[in-house]
Amino acid sequence: xxxxxxxxxxxxxSHSVASALPSxxxxxxxxxxxxxxxxxxxEVRRIGRAVRLTMxxxxxxxxxxxSAFLDFxxxxxxxxxxxxxxxxxxxxxxxxxxxxxxxxxxxxxxHSSPELEIFCYLLVLLFLIDLKKYNEAxxxxxxxxxxxxxxNRRTLDVLSSRLYFYYSYSYELTGDLAxxxxxxxxxxxxxxxxxxELGQETLLNLLLRNYLHYNxxxxxxxxxxxxxxxxxxxxxxxxxxxxYLGKIRTIQLxxxxxxxxxxxxxxKAPIAAQGFRIQCNxxxxxxxxxxxxxxxxxxxxxxxxxxxLRPYFELTNAVRIGDLELFKTVADKFSxxxxxxxxxxxxxxxxxxxxxxxxxxxxxSYSRISLTDVAKKLRLDTANPVADAxxxxxxxxxxxxxxxxxxxxxxxxxxxxxxxxYSTNEPQIAFNSRIAFCLxxxxxxxxxxxxPPNTQEDKETAEKRRxxxxxxxxxxxxxxxxxxxxx
Amino acid sequence: MxxxxxxxxxxxxxxxxxxxxxxFDTCANLLSQLKVLLTGFRSxxxxxxxxxxxxxxLTLARDIYEHAVILSVKTExxxxxxxxxxxxxxxxxxxxxxLPQSPQEYIILGLNLLRLLVQNRIAEFHTELELLSSTAxxxxxxxxxxxxEQSFMEGAYNRVLSARQxxxxxxxxxxMDLLAKxxxxxxxxxxxxxYDYLSISDARQMLLFSSDKxxxxxxxxxxxxxxxxxxxxxxxxxxxxxxxxEIPSLQLINQTLSYARELERIV
Lengths: 487, 267
Known about the structure:
The complex is a heterodimer of chains A (about 475) and B (about 270). With about 475 residues, chain A is mostly helical.
């Protein structure tokens, strides 16, 4: 998303003198030629760039500009042209005439490529969503999806994945997500058959979003675990996937994996995606609390997130102290915001962690304490607090939350001496995992570098190339041998 | 009225009568006939076709499956419960917009939650829980199951056991009895980690046995590593032995070599 903003900034200054309307139209035409050339040379990345440029122009789109562009792109009589221009509001007759006049001359020579046609659909759809004409947007996106199904071209993948997204988005805005579930599944199937990996990625995310919107975690997990996975093509889609994965795993009590996915999603998300990062952080905080960890204060005081994370901050505080009363007050106080976040059930689960933390604090401060006092300190207000305290402590001991033994006859909890952690393998393991993380990060960064095609290489003579290839081969052999040497 | 529908309704009436009499063989027999007949209706899931009698058929089918679930509880057949519940579920989720809510719905959902708890399928328990609205969570049947799960996770087993008296519906009792067995295993597992030893009478009380003999049998059967000596149960044997102090040399060499290789690649 950051890229979009930057792109826009680069573009505008040079044209700021000219009036907004023609310049936007000119940009669109540039983008169209970019798409055409991308489609012609089968350079998918050019189309990707075109889409990014379009997002920069998004807020400058107006009905006259769009209709002028449609005139430019299509032969006037074509089916798609009629269909698309029907969606545009006709209030600005005057401006339209002015613009369509020059382009009409070009029209006869035009024969639009499918890429350009789909691109026009995308433009109109964006425009309708921005105007909040959601019902028209729904109709337009459905029409575009129907058209997409009949074209099978890899150069379309980037455009179609955007269209899928806005298709689902327009239905979500009107609250009819359940309606398109079958359609999305069919599209996912088609994308899989066509080896359209970007499309698969996008559609899988949309389906997960669709299921999670209705809290259908079971179906979401079944789909996710069975859908084909491959290396991510788009960072944004990968972030979303990680977020959904984290949510599913949280619900299914796989907290360790959930934490990993959620933190990774928050880390990988672009800076501009503030809302997404807030959501990720909310869930990550809860998962870490459920794991018995206390998130650092810095998470809550970051600029822009402070207000949104406030309820979670107070919650963390209650868990940290291990005070059941405070926990209850906080849960009640912010219950409406927890309900909107859909985290209410997780908060209910947390109660048991509050008790655990309280118990751990007691076990650290006392070497021996009677169960009556434990019950009092934990504020267990039940019929038989001592018996409850005893079994709660017993379970905490079994789960490894506290290191103690119980003396039933005397009704005591006796804490064990905390052993010297440096006499165990623990530090070595922690050290290793950190080193592994850093090395992995470096390797991934190297792998993510992209090199522009080297123009000088083309001029290389045949002889030189052979020499270089030989060198490379030797090097590869060398590396392979080295690998064999290790164990 | 549609003759097929009349036939099903009549059969269903006989089924209900048999269920009241607790005549389970007849019930099972009639139920399989009913299920076969239901496949003939095109308005039921998964087709959901909009036939003129759709509402009537859906209501009747839902009623039949609800009774099937109740029957499976009475016959104490958990597999049948799971099957029937999954057949019933689409009527609650996908047909909820077209049918008025069933008075049985919360009881059945609560029973299902309890079943998942008894079978210790906590992940599925929470997945089901997410599907419930906040009004559903307020319902006594659902609330009962949710509170049980909480006490269970905390380790407040006394509360789990005493909840048997407050069961909101008669059919809950069967699962509560099953839950007692799960609770005993849990207490056993916790005790062996938490106590060094327990006197036999305390152990008997804690593990909910009425006689010492039952306790001895249980220990022999499920926990042969416990030792009975001087009127006490010793758990010492079950505890882990002290961690060995050996240096994991091979692992260390491996790791160091891999660091060296990675660093070489970077520099």
